[in-house]
Amino acid sequence: MKNRAMKNRAMWRRVLLEAEDARRERGGHTIILDQYVPWRDNISLLGDDVYYVVYPVSGGGWGLKCLPPHSKSLKQRVPMPTKWAGLRGEELCEVSGVSGATFCHPGRFIAHATSKDAALALAEEAYTQQMWDEKVQAVRALRALFADD
Q1: Nearest alpha-carbon partner for 53 in 9, 16, 107, 83
Q2: What is the pLDDT of residues 66-111, one digit of tens each?
């Protein structure tokens, strides 16, 4: 039994490393897994610039999960946008701009879509919106700082 568990861990590690290599070749911030792999304990294998994992969901469709900074953290490196929190179906499609988006958890750490392409589009849109929001916040902070002078 112990040898089998070690073989599984080695296989999962190999799948994650291959997915990370593929991500680096294509660019972006999302790991694509075409099968279930317990990735959380192996976050250290992934680059610091990986923010999302896209994977098939057992009931159908595709999932998108935000990576935490490390395996024990409940925070996300780059969460889903605040305005997506708790949305479903057409409402999420409209707000995110992604056709096929089906669900975003209120905690903004997981989302679902009808297809792999839709899940990847959600990941890209989430990253873009979060980076934009951070830039806007930084500009506002600078304006407030200089407004006091």
Answers
A1: 16
A2: 999 888 888 888 999 999 999 999 999 999 999 999 999 999 999 9
Find residue 62's DSSP bridge partners.
56, 113
Domain boundaries, the chain: 2-147
Pairing verdict, β 62-66 and 30-32: unpaired
Closest Cα partner for 88 from 77, 80, 79, 100? 100
Total-model pTM = 0.82
Percent of the chain scoring above 90 in pLDDT:
56
CA distances for 58 relative to 25, 63, 116, 131, angstroms: 28, 10, 13, 31
The distance from CA 84 to its chain's CA centroid, rounded to whole angstroms, is 14
Nearest to 84 by CA among 126, 120, 52, 51: 126
